[in-house]
Amino acid sequence: MTALPAQERREALAARYPVWPGHTLPEHFREQAARYGSRPAIMTEHRQLTYAELWEEARSIAKSLLGLGVARRDHVAMILANEPETVSLMIAVWMIGAVCVPVNTMLREDELRYVLQQSDSRWLVFHQMAGGVRHAENVLRLSGELPKIRRMICIPNADQSPDERFLSWSEFLEMGSRISDDELERRFAASRYPDEVADIIYTSGSTGQPKGVMITHDMFLRCAYATALSRAFEDGRRIFTALPLYHVFALVEGILALSFVGGAHIMTSGFVPAQALAMIERFKANDMLCVPSMLVALINHPDVGKYDLSSLYALMCAAAPAPVSVWQRAIDTLKLTEICTGYGATEVTASTAHTEIGDDIETVVTKVGRIKPGGVSGLPQYGGANVQYKTVDPETGEDLPPGAIGELTVRGNVVTKGYYNKPEETFAVIDKDGWLRTGDLGRVDERGYIELLGRSKEMYKVSGENVAPKEVEDVINRHPAVAQAYVVGVKDPLTVETGAAFVELRPGHTCTRAEIVEFCQKHLAKFKVPRHVWFVSANEWPVTGNGKIQKFKLKEMAEKRIEERVKS
Q: What are the CB-based long-range contacts (under 8 Å, 24+) for 376-380?
């Protein structure tokens, strides 16, 4: 399948929204339910909701929240799998002016305790099991340490009945029966403030405790509209993804962006390649959101050629770099005509940059895109976009000239105003003029494309020479036997620091440390060649909930292996 030319699709989208409406999220979904009522909005293996059904279910749940006693601006924590009721509940919370606190389903007790306490959550809704974790048991053990939480609501989905101390989902839903339509409408009317916080989303972080990023209704909608415009969403686009809804990638680049064109979000609670392929075929997905580890597993599946994937033509793969070989195999195997990577963070709502439709693979691999066009959602002072970027000296914070390599900083109408209840951490990264220091090392080239060179804190020095890990990774990823590679800096007695590379090989290929080193020597200065090389399997990568490689854990792995080598 091939869509209309990108410019035609963008013009159709722009014509549909001639002025920025300035809605809250539930106002937006009410409008979309009226416009696209009979179209599918959420699709899973076992249940589908149209836009009209999604809206009515959200209204019903909103009444139950009022019956429960949830007040405006209350924080409602959610430990939920990718299920239709997750989306309905989020819309319901927003409808009554409360704040969603989506929680990573992979958190264990200590991490969960911290997030629930630090977020000042007063209500907790959770699936009995999500992300492979039995949350009912963890929550029960923590209940005595969460005095601010008034009620805990358990949605059963495991092989045993939830503890009686939890409010059951059915009991919760019944609470809405005593709330009138007028009462709900009064609360809804009192909550129509687009600049109020809609979500507090906790970043996984590489060091220290997670920080709760505050995102408003307007930020969500502007960012999502810019995505639909940038990627030229056609009317009714369907996206498949297994990415979790507790992160902004799936929520903004998927559900919210799709809502502007009456599209469908096809989702699963976990990534299983065969299941993903079957659902793309069954629901005729046009597009897919993923991270590189998912893409590699999908195109390596032995039965990938047996599925009818003719509806699929677009792909957004982001959150981590993927080598040329992976992108080329994805194009060849999945018959893609539109590929995209992007750049963003929770602190900027989701993506702020995408590669352009029609960009060659080399651009997609070496850049992370140009700032998304904002259209009606953008600002004149930013050239019609929602953000602007500049680079600063990582140590002094001084502005650098255009095109210079430095720490990327960003400001705009989708950039958070700060971290919840963390004024010092907020002040450390956001200055008086609203510029947010991303912690990413890179530059903006003459075409406006952003090039990433790794995290500024991941830079290491070999005999006084700076090395950007990504530069080394890009070289190793060009080796024909390599599926993906990541590099970290480690201490070294001779050069103070040196590089340590972790390499995953393509199925059926072999390679040695010496071959990797020799390959690097042909393309890199001597001091950039990693001294340590280890081969790992696909399931050994330490990743966050949304599939990002955790460099700090790779560093720990490298240091442990070096220490063991020295001892032996």
A: 376/14, 376/17, 376/18, 376/19, 376/20, 376/225, 377/20, 377/221, 377/222, 377/225, 377/226, 377/229, 378/222, 378/226, 379/412, 379/413
Helices (H) and strands (E) in the chain, counts: 19, 28
Distance of alpha carbon 62 from alpha carbon 73, whole angstroms: 14
Helix axes 217-230, 25-36, angle to 10 degrees: 50
User: What count of residues does the chain have?
Assistant: 568
Torsion of CA 430, 436, 441, 445, to 10 degrees: -140
Using an 8 Å Cβ cutoff, are 460 and 499 in contact? yes
Strands 197-202 and 212-216: antiparallel
- Mode of pairing for the β-strands spanning 436-444 and 406-412: antiparallel
| Residues 246 and 222: beta-carbon distance below 8 Å | no
Give the whole-angstrom CA distance, residue 163 versus residue 307. Answer: 42
Q: Cβ(99)–Cβ(93) under 8 Å?
A: yes
Q: Which range (53-62, 123-132, 330-339) has the least confidence? A: 123-132
Q: How many CB atoms lie within 10 A of CB 504?
A: 18
Give percent of the chain with pLDDT exceeding 70: 98
Reading the block at residue 366, the tokens are: 């070496």
**CA–CA separation, 388 and 404 (whole Å):** 15
The neighbouring-strand residues paired with 238 are: 264
* C-beta separation of 233 from 260 below 8 A: yes
Nearest-angstrom CA–CA distance, 166 and 505: 47
Instruction: State both tokens at 244.
Output: 């979790």
The angle subtended at Cα 544 by Cα 539 and Cα 548, nearest 5°, is 80
Q: Minimal CA–CA distance to 222: which of 188, 264, 261, 256?
A: 256
Cα 162 to Cα 183: distance, rounded to the nearest angstrom? 31
DSSP, collapsed to helix, strand or coil, labels residue 180 as coil
Exposed, middle or buried, 493 (CB in 10 Å: 0-12/13-18/19+)?
Answer: exposed
Q: Which two tokens stand for residue 406?
A: 């430095």
Contact yes or no for 280/240 (Cβ under 8 A):
yes
Residue 484: what residue type?
Answer: Q
42 close to 267: Cβ distance less than 8 angstroms: yes
Nearest to 119 by CA among 200, 217, 206, 236: 200
Q: Are 33 and 55 in contact (CB under 8 A)?
A: yes
pLDDT band at 207 (very low <50, low <70, confident <90, very high): very low
List, in sequence order, the alpha helices (H) in 302-352: 324-334
Rounded CA gap, 97 and 188, in Å?
A: 7
Q: Assess contact for 516 and 523: CB atoms under 8 A.
A: no
What's the CA gap between 100 and 88, in Å, rounded? Answer: 12
Tens-digit pLDDT profile for residues 135-164: 888 899 999 999 999 999 999 988 877 888
What's the pTM value of the predicted model, to 2 decimals?
0.85
Answer left, alpha or beta for residue 236, where phi above 0 means left and psi between -120 and 50 means alpha.
Answer: left
Token reading at 68? 């429960």
Distance CA 295, CA 484 (A): 11
H or E element: which one contains 28?
helix 25-36
CA distance 186 to 55: 17
> Which of residues 465 and 526 earns the better pLDDT score?
526
